[in-house]
Design brief:
Elements (H helix, E strand, L loop, with lengths): L1 E3 L2 E4 L3 H12 L4 E5 L13 E3 L3 H10 L4 H8 E7 L9 E6 L1 H13 L4 E5 L2 E8 L11 E8 L4 E3 L2 E4 L8 E4 L2 E4 L11 H6 L5 E13 L9 E3 L22 E5 L2 H9 L22 H7 L7 E6 L6 E8 L4 H8 L10 E3 L2 E8 L13 E2 L1 E3 L9 H18 L14 H12 L23 H12 L4 H23 L1 E2 L1 H11 L8 E2 H5 L6 H5 L3 H8 L5 H13 L1 H18 L17 H10 L4 H5 L6 H12 L1
Parallel strand pairs: 1-10, 2-3, 2-11, 3-7, 9-21, 11-22
Antiparallel strand pairs: 4-6, 5-6, 8-9, 9-10, 12-13, 12-20, 14-18, 14-19, 14-20, 15-16, 16-17, 17-18, 23-24
């Protein structure tokens, strides 16, 4: 059987779902190839979306016209805004989701996306042909024309996006037992890596893991501390959908010295320490056994027990990722008072899988070796649903654009966390699973979670990915934020109205009239507490037809942090000048002897687009950049 499409997406995880819907929404005839239609967008590890920096990515996906935020809002069972005690540059939304409902909500999105078909099968081989127009400096000597599946189907397309997650030669570990698989009880993809590598694309191995799943009926919650969610109306999507599911609490406790003793006594059976696992795992989400080895003096480690859904007894034990033998895991957990009678659904396990060096990609996530071939998600060496989804949107957009011409869609480091993520991948590569943090973004005051639509929605609408409805939501919000800001800059209040509040907050009293915007510059003064004293301000805030609190919050941030935002924007504009200096295709780096040997090797391999990208490559020094600038001037 031969099927013809514009875009084929391999893999139905978070990257694949976003890539497929993005391409289809842009008008490309798209086919999503997945092993199991009933496990679309499976949350293989924690059933949660967002978190530090990750929440910003989900907001950006939403602003670009993606679906992760919408699906999360419809299936969230606990919402929290992290880092509220810090500045708004690092506020990060996070939601615990109903795992089963999350899958079916995504399935509903896919089933109702025009131009999108689903094919249940397993990709086995790329179909590649020689390129017709190959320049001396171009690495793209081949182009993709389709794929073959294990059942012999041929799916032909102009663009192919690979989002195979942990399934490429996946190998699971529990103690000394090893089983091939891409996820528990699911088969591995055993031949696709070799088909890709056959064309000169290099790959390596990484490792990740997931914790035990617990039957909540066996838990002594009286020995745990409850962790409720927030009762506000916060949501991930800017589109105004509600959170329909009941909100459930999470629970916390700690490991004990007795737990640690059992785990330490069994380290010889740990795949991480007996030589069974050779690949690199995530630094920032270590297994419990890694914590014990890395921090031998710690007497306890925090654990978070989180619900898997509203209709299930299954719970997820965050903080206890492990690949120890199953009896060791259970016995160690029983040394914790809350788990003394624990029953589990399955133990934790580790999984090794193939990934491809992301420095072999451009900023569109297209292969430098095979034109029309795109990679997104864990196959690029990242970890996390959010990082995968962000790459999926970008790859899907560019896969669709590739079908109709030479136009591309990229995001810079001062436009989006997704831009930071992609630039880090294609410029620096990875030596461990990549996880996004706010500290990776040098422009994080610009890249706040509240203004992702301001940064991205208009650009997405002009490209054709964001709908008119989404764009109109943004215009409405933009206008209302402007009205609140203008009101605060022009409306003055007298001391008699606000000095009682100033005294209550412990800040200096007014001695004359002051603009509302000047009052907001004080740390504890907010639009909320001022609006209780100034009826005109409350009226201006409530004029918004929807998302009143969120709109007021963005207006307040715009006023309070105006100086910081403008200073960072000026710096970003200076750096953007280097981004505008194109160097790709202008040099044969091997011939530039004034560059260091390491620099020549890195520049030849990565082929940076701009001077700015070259400056971020590890091993390229400021003096090397000066050499390139001098040569450009000549």
């Amino acid at each position: 059987m031969i099927l013809k499409y514009d875009v084929i997406v391999i893999g139905g995880g978070h990257a694949g779902c976003e890539a497929a819907t993005a391409a289809a929404n842009m008008g490309a005839r798209t086919c999503l190839v997945t092993m199991d239609m009933n496990k679309i967008a499976q949350m293989s590890c924690n059933p949660a979306v967002g978190g530090i920096a990750k929440g910003q990515i989900v907001r950006e996906i939403d602003a670009l016209g993606g679906n992760m935020g919408l699906v999360t809002d419809k299936t969230a069972i606990q919402f929290r805004m992290l880092n509220r005690s810090k500045g708004p540059a690092v506020w990060s939304p996070r939601a615990q989701c109903d795992r089963g409902k999350f899958i079916w909500e995504w399935r509903n999105v896919l089933d109702n996306t025009p131009n999108l078909d689903i094919w249940q099968d397993q990709a086995e081989e790329l179909i590649v042909e020689p390129s017709q127009n190959v320049t001396a400096l171009s690495q793209q000597a081949k182009h993709i024309v389709g794929i073959r599946t294990i059942w012999g189907a041929e799916l032909m397309a102009k663009s192919v996006v690979i989002t195979a997650g942990t399934f490429l030669n996946g190998l699971m570990h529990i103690g000394r037992k090893k089983v091939a698989g891409g996820r528990i009880a699911e088969p591995a993809a055993l031949h696709l890596t070799e088909s890709i590598a056959h064309h000169g694309i290099t790959f390596s191995r990484m490792k990740t893991g997931t914790p035990v799943r617990i039957d909540k009926r066996s838990v002594h919650f009286e020995d745990m501390e409850v962790q409720p969610g927030e009762e506000g109306i916060q949501q991930f999507s800017y589109m105004g959908s509600s959170r329909p599911l009941p909100q459930l609490p999470c629970w916390t406790c700690n490991t004990t010295p007795e737990t640690h003793a059992i785990l330490r006594d069994s380290l010889a059976d740990s795949p991480l320490y007996n030589g069974q696992i050779q690949s690199t795992g995530p630094r920032y989400c270590p297994s419990i056994e890694t914590k014990l080895v890395t921090f031998p003096d710690k007497q306890q480690h925090p654990l978070f027990l989180e619900p898997e859904g509203v209709d299930t007894n299954e719970m997820y034990l965050n903080g206890f990722s492990s690949s120890m033998p199953m009896d060791v895991q259970v016995e160690a957990l029983r040394q914790i008072p809350a788990f003394r009678d624990i029953k589990i659904y399955r133990p934790g396990y580790a999984i090794e899988y193939d990934y491809f060096d992301p420095t072999q990609l451009t900023h569109t996530l297209e292969s430098k070796i095979i034109s029309g071939l795109y990679f997104a998600g864990q196959v690029n060496g990242t970890t996390g649903y959010e990082e995968a989804g962000g790459q999926g949107v970008l790859a899907g957009i560019n896969a669709a654009l590739n079908c109709v011409g030479n136009k591309t869609f990229t995001l810079s480091r001062d436009e989006a966390y997704i831009g930071v993520l992609v630039d880090d991948l294609v410029t620096k590569g990875v030596d461990e699973p990549y996880r996004m943090f706010t500290s990776r973004a040098e422009y994080r005051i610009l890249l706040r979670q509240d203004n992702a639509d301001e940064r991205l929605t208009e650009k997405a609408y002009e490209t054709g990915i964001a709908s008119r409805e989404r764009y109109d939501w943004w215009l409405q919000k933009k206008e209302h934020v402007r009205r609140i800001v203008d009101f605060c800059h022009t409306h003055s209040v007298k001391p008699a109205i606000v000095n009682g509040l100033m005294e209550q907050l412990g800040t200096a009293p007014l001695h004359g009239s002051a603009k509302i915007s000047d009052l907001l510059a004080r740390p504890l003064v907010t639009l909320s507490n001022l609006s209780e004293l100034i009826p005109q301000l409350k009226e201006a805030i409530n004029l918004s037809p929807n998302r009143v609190e969120e709109t007021a919050e963005e207006a307040e941030i715009a006023i309070k942090y105006h100086g910081y935002v403008e200073r960072e924007r000026v710096f970003a504009e200076k750096m953007r000048r280097l981004e505008n200096i194109k160097i790709k295709g202008k040099f044969n780096y091997e011939e530039i002897k004034d560059l260091s040997t390491e620099c020549r090797q890195k520049l030849k391999r990565i082929q940076p687009e701009t001077i700015a990208q070259a400056s971020r490559i590890p091993g390229v020094s400021p003096s090397d950049i000066n050499v390139l600038l001098v040569l450009l001037n000549k």
